[in-house]
Input
Amino acid sequence: IRFCDWSSDVCSSDLAKAELAAAEARASKLEGFKLTLTAKAGGEGKLFGSIGTTDIAEGVKKAGHKIERSEVRLPNGPIRQAGEHVVQIHLHTDLTIELPVTIVGEE
Output
């Protein structure tokens, strides 16, 4: 079934395909990318505060990739410990990738 907006002559199935193709292109640019962030931490690696979706989105943007805060998913909640973590980037309804994130604690 195709639903068309006759005023703009664009069909929704074509639009959905274009959106998925754009998301796949963004995913390929993020392939192999690893984000490293620094945060204040105590002696055992426990962060003073936490790393959330905004921090991750800003870090990815600073590295030159296009991403929105709403696309960052933290299934275990904000990151509160230094070390290696994996976050999900939800680029499209049908496309979610995993992004390795390293939090380096500084005293």
User: Anything to note?
Assistant: Residues 12-30 form the longest helix (19 residues). The CA atoms of residues 15 and 59 lie 30 Å apart. The two ends are 59 Å apart (CA to CA).
